[in-house]
Please model this.
Amino acid sequence: MNTNITEKGILLRASGLLLIFAVLVLDIVMMPGLFSCMMYADGRTGTNSPETSEKNKQNEMIGGISSENELHCGAMQPESFLDKLYFFGDSTTYGLMNYNVLNDGRHGQNYHTLKASQIWVPEGGTFYLGNILTARIALCDGRHLSLAEATANIRPEYLVITVGVNGLVSWQEESFKKYYCKMISLVCENSENTVIMLQSVYPVASNVTNNLKNFTNDKIDIINVWIKEIAEERGLTFINSNPSLKDENGYLKQEYQNGDGLHLNTEGFNAILEFIEKTVTGGEVK
Amino acid sequence: MNEKKSGKKNIKRIFCTVMIVLQILLFVSCENDTAKRTNEISADTVAEIMLEAIGREDMEKLDNNDIEFTLGVSPAYYTEAAVYVCSSGASIDEFGVFKAAEGEKTRLTNSLSSYISSSQAGKFEWLNSYNPPEAEKLEDAYIDQYGDIVVYSFCGDDCAKEFGKRLKSAGIY
Model:
């Protein structure tokens, strides 16, 4: 009887130790951040320089993403100008996620290597400017943040905004500019060092699908004038990529569209990224 | 015989009059009760009921300081407000619950009507071209009043019915 009790005690202790060991092993496996250098949403890795350490601390304090999530999002040390860009917009920006422009392994490789973390679009894959104060960006780490929160948390070095095609048909200049300026203010107030770049709305192709017939290049051109005016008033960079996407008849080049006449395909996005890189780094903007 | 008949008639008349008076009293008391309830109830409570009726998890509350900017409704017209908008871009679902300030119910309602009209004008053509079911919600937009509570909604007919049912079961409407 006594022997049985002792045996049971030993067995219980052994299984307890085994459980603790298993939990420890699991912890190590599940937390790669413990054994790799810290990485941040903006792509910077943890270094010993006081400046970056301070900035990294700041990132952590304002809700920096865990290293696990950052790795999942494809965070990496910025190597090129494009690595520093963040894109905020509607479905015309969301396309960057789906046309092999990312390098996170989910959508194949491409000459340009954007990461999912660089694309800021609400979960529905689209965005209406009138909802700027309530829209929530679906970040690739699972968080849903307002534009103000996202800029405050991530503090992108460059933010390319491509907005205006939704509601295009009916926007009036006054209300469009009111909401557009509010959007810019949200970024400025929350990340004063972010370089905001306002991109023109892309053109539509001649074979735009029937249900999108109201999306005309004439209307897009008007919106783009308003965006340019806002950029000039605010002293911001205006990326006028629209003309570079047009064919000789003023429509979106066939080789750049995904089939619906409104959204870009891989070639279209490559052209955009090349245009942004060339114009911004080449000082040809404005 | 005739006296008996006229006596019966009198009793019937008195009985009917009493019944009518009772019914009127009952109706008035119910009405007062509803008014009392809506006066006591907060905009947030009604908004919660609407959120349950919508059943979406991506509804985002608009900061009250931004209501005038977004809706063009003066804060002088209401004492409480709860405006929710779909935050994911997946739907145009939107509603607002306002508690009218004293004597400002008409101006509040007119202001919300203007907002609905401008939203319809601004979004309908675009939505109808690429997402017709959402455009229908714009067409079905409505404003309702429950005592001093004023509600507007772009959440569609089904949601409106569900909202009505839930309000009734909460004893508000």
User: Anything to note?
Assistant: Chain A has three domains: 2-30, 35-77, 78-281. The interface with chain B takes residues 90, 121-128, 130-131, 133-136, 138, 144, 146, 166-172, 175, 178, 182, 211-215 of chain A (CB under 8 Å).
